Amino acid sequence: MYKILLFITLNLFATFNCDRECGLENIICKNNSKYRSIDGSCNNLQNPNWGTKYSLYDRILNPKYGDGVHSFPKAISGKNLPNSRKISTTIYKQGMTETISKISLSTMQYGQIVTHDMSFTYLPPNSIPCCTTNLKMLDKKEVPKVCASIEIPNDDPVYSYINATCMRMVRTITNNERACSQSLKYDEQLSEVNSYLDLSIIYGQTYKDHKTLRTFINGTLLVDIRNNREWLPSSVKSLCTGNFNTAERCYRSGDPRTNQNPQLTVIMTLWVRNHNNIAKNLQKMNPHWDDGRTFEEARRINIAEHQFISYYELLPLYLGREELVKKKILYNTDEFVNDYDQNMRPHIYNEHAHSAFRQFHSLITGKLSVYNPDGFSYDSILLRDNYNRPESLEQYKLFDGLIRGLSMQPQMESDIYYDPDVTQCAFLHAFKFNVDIKAIDIQRARDHGLASYNDMRSYCGIKRAKNFTDFLDVMDRDKLDFLLSLYEKPDDVDLIVGGSLENNIKDTLAGPTFLCILYKQFYKTRRSDRFWFENEASGLTLKQLKEIRKFSISKLFCDNGNNITLMQKHGFLPVSERNPRYRCKSINGPNLHWWKE
Ligand code: HEM
Q: Among its keywords, does the record have Chloroplast (predicted)?
């Protein structure tokens, strides 16, 4: 009898252990830590590993896997959905982008910073072959299970000229492959970064990584000094797959995508410099603070400034200020906003990361203009030459020229027109083959089994379409014609495709279905963060919070460029009569004297 009981108990225990939740393991929370952890653990005290590296994406709607569990979604007829590359070349016209002068390129680039801070599909290693070396599809019997390469149609307008028929793609790692959360009925994908908007892109995802980014002196982050300026520390060259030779620079920071494109690396460098400036000022005011205290206080300020810029300056341009206030994503207040909800998971919605937010790949421009101090563009570098190749940043005066470019160059419209550097010339030098980021986006959304456009429409309160023409309530006839030429039934239309064809709602960069997802995500991101800068639990005093609210993207540019002297007050908007350039000294910012002890 005793033996039987012991067997049952052990077995129950074994089952419990086997079904460990995805995310980091063996977390021990320090009681009442004043500061957020580096890896996101213990933000939620009831569920300490919520939002940590290797957490699952959340879902708004149940998935539509072909086999209900893992395989790519199928059309209602049981056939394959239209080819992702075919959709890309049919709908997302290349090289016909219109610019809009209302918004600066910094808006696109900061959007990428926000997304990198929130999620990153956890992928198998790059070395797995998913195409032959001469870019043909592998024989079906030889295809590794993790591959989901896109078969390029024979009549492809670009790749048929080089006889390529295979665009490499690997499937995202799921709970099943990592043997976590195994009681789920279907596959859920894992994110490689923590979900909080906490600048983990510069501070690291785990304590192990983090330690390699610190000096442990006076609260500063590790930098290399060259020409009297701070640069991100050097990295192993393998991270910079676009470099032409091993002498070229390569950087490391808290995120594996640090070197992906020059403007991204510029902003990451600015945040590291900003941390160090804050730390130096705090140390001067509080010489009795040790390295740890100075570091944590500087980090708290840096993250608060980032959260403030992201929500109060950037999101209104993407999602419309009025609606954001109405939906309680933003507040018109000088006080704290104590809206933390411990029952809300910080995890990123699959539909957000793999459909709605990717819409903004349409904003990317391939030509990055370089501006002189007088505000004139005198040079440019091309994205296609600089994927995973940050070499240009330290070239003569280019760093500041690119910062001015971010603030002055108009960004592209959010529409169906894509820069060829996104759909034809992406990562050529990096992977020795051009990929089409739009086709990959569609393929990735299918890899994750996302619910259909029609399902999401009805979830968002838009009438479910019975016929294709029912889609005309939110899109124009020419867009509908694309869908008619590609899909058999309204229920077949991919969310990422249907959503991208909707007319943008006034004062926003997206149509109603994507907006519905984006609002839901950004609401969740603020309310699920116990250390959100407007929460009293963040550790800021009200006086300090008021100072944080004086920060701006322009201040980030002014304080941390090499020698930026002039800047408009609204750095996400181009220079105009209403947004003229001022001396940097007159651009307001937080006064740190409220941190003096
Ligand atoms: C030059 C700029 C950019 C480049 C080169 C770029 C490139 C990429 C690439 C290669 C991926 C991964 C594709 C895959 O394998 O699934 C990706 C993912 C993504 N991108 Fe971008 N992107 C850029 C800007 C942006 C912007 C401006 C936004 C939004 C405002 C954005 C949102 C996203 C999102 C949400 C993901 C998925 C994140 C995740 O893995 O969870 N990207 N991007």
A: no
Q: Is the CB of 112 under 6 A from ligand 1?
A: yes
What are the residue ranges of helices labelled H in 424-552? 428-431, 437-447, 453-459, 477-486, 495-501, 512-527, 542-548
Q: Which ligand 1 atom minimizes the distance to the CA of 435?
A: 10
**Domain layout of the chain by residue ranges:** 193-258+271-348+524-595
Token pair of 182 as six digits = 């195994």
pLDDT tens per residue across span 519-568: 999 999 999 999 999 999 999 999 999 999 999 999 999 999 999 999 99
Q: Is 353 in the pocket of ligand 1 (CB under 6 A)?
A: yes
- The residues that are catalytic are 116
- pLDDT over 50 at 341, yes or no: yes
| Percent of the chain clearing pLDDT 70 (strictly above) | 94
Beta strand segments in 245-394, E:
367-371, 377-382
Nearest to 186 by CA among 196, 173, 175: 175
Please answer whether residues 362 and 234 qualify as being in contact, where contact means their C-beta atoms are separated by less than 8 angstroms. Answer: no
For residues 356 and 499, the answer to whether their CB atoms sit within 8 Å is yes
Distance from the alpha carbon of residue 338 to the mean position of ligand 1, in angstroms: 32
Among the atoms of ligand 1, which is closest to the Cα of residue 387?
5
pLDDT in tens, 124-133: 988 889 999 8
Token pair recorded at residue 161: 């000229």
Q: Does 368 sit in the ligand 1 pocket, CB within 6 Å?
A: no
> Which ligand 1 atom sits closest to the C-alpha of 108?
27
452: DSSP letter: B
Q: Residues 6 or more apart from 578 whose CB is under 8 A from it?
A: none
Over the stretch 13-48, which tens digit does the pLDDT of each residue have?
334 445 789 999 989 898 789 999 999 999 999 999
- Our measurement of the distance from residue 203's CA atom to the centroid of its chain's CA atoms, rounded to an integer in Å, reads 16
CATH 1.10.640.10 fits 193-258+271-348+524-595, yes or no: yes
Whether 10 has a pLDDT exceeding 70, the answer reads: no
Question: Whole-model pTM?
Answer: 0.95
Nearest CA to ligand 1 atom 10: 437
The verdict on the CB of residue 106 being under 6 Å from ligand 1 is no
Q: Which of 110, 594, 90, 471 is nearest to 308 (CA)?
A: 110
**Residue 306 counted as an annotated binding residue:** no
Whether the CA torsion 112, 117, 121, 125 is positive or negative: it is positive
Query: pLDDT by residue (tens digit) across 161-177?
Result: 888 899 999 999 999 99
What's the CA-to-centroid distance between 587 and ligand 1, angstroms? 31
Is any ligand 1 atom within 6 A of the Cβ of residue 518?
no
Taking CA 592 as the corner, what is the angle to CA 574 and CA 406, rounded to the nearest 5 degrees? 20
List the end-to-end C-alpha distance of the chain, in Å, as a whole number.
Answer: 66
